[in-house]
């Protein structure tokens, strides 16, 4: 039994006439009669009473018609969903996020735009640092991830830069460097002043890129930084800054975090230090939903 047999049967039942059913199906009436007879032999039941002016379903035929219509509806629905998934307008997408990438305006803007445009794509989220999320993408545990600087170099990773922004220094608002004369703009901090402060940084495996950017700036200036602590993520960084433990550097978009306790200062350096926003996918990712997410992420910052 094939799906076409069910379509033949339901069309005959709807028309109540083999000739009209054949015309609707676009086939000749004799072959349709043969297909109906073959279906009845396979089922071992009579599906129609043959009347002078047409056909009428039997009791067995009525039961078979109900189930056939339900089955065909499910098949049509499955086919339509498969086509939507093939276009990336349905399905699922597992997205990784680092805490610092989550604070960049492009992240909520892209997610909101994606949910609005593709409501049938179910989004799920996984948190981690750049290293763990890179591994998640490589191992197919996440289809895409938004991180800051990439920290893993692997042939399996596709790296797409979405945006970049300045790095700023974060110090406790009670610190002398945070004070400013009345009516004057908040001052900036030099790389040499920053080197004198105890620094709280995200440990290298999690933020190798920005960690390396800062250390490279110190090295080029002939300075040796004082690393007071290494932590797991930038929110912990800022919590310790607010507590007066030390200073740190973060992307400018994080400047709203604990703003009543932390002063965020532009950094004066020979080389402008920036924090990228990067989208990671598997190098051979073929899911159209991922392609649609990439397109939207680029448009949001375009």
TrEMBL record:
**Record SUPFAM superfamilies:** Periplasmic binding protein-like II, Winged helix' DNA-binding domain
What are the recorded GO MF terms, alphabetically? DNA binding; DNA-binding transcription factor activity
Q: Which UniProt keywords apply?
A: DNA-binding, Transcription, Transcription regulation
* Entry keyword Metal-binding: no
**Which stretches make up the HTH lysR-type domain?**
1-58
Q: List the Pfam families hit by this protein, alphabetically.
A: HTH_1, LysR_substrate
Query: What GO cellular component entries does it have?
Result: protein-DNA complex
Q: Does the keyword Transcription apply?
A: yes
> Per its UniProt entry, which superkingdom is the organism in?
Bacteria
The UniProt entry's sequence similarity note says: Belongs to the LysR transcriptional regulatory family.
Cited PANTHER family: SMALL NEUTRAL PROTEASE REGULATORY PROTEIN (PTHR30346:SF30), TRANSCRIPTIONAL DUAL REGULATOR HCAR-RELATED (PTHR30346)
Q: What name is this protein filed under? A: HTH-type transcriptional regulator CatM
Q: Which organism is it from?
A: Usitatibacter palustris
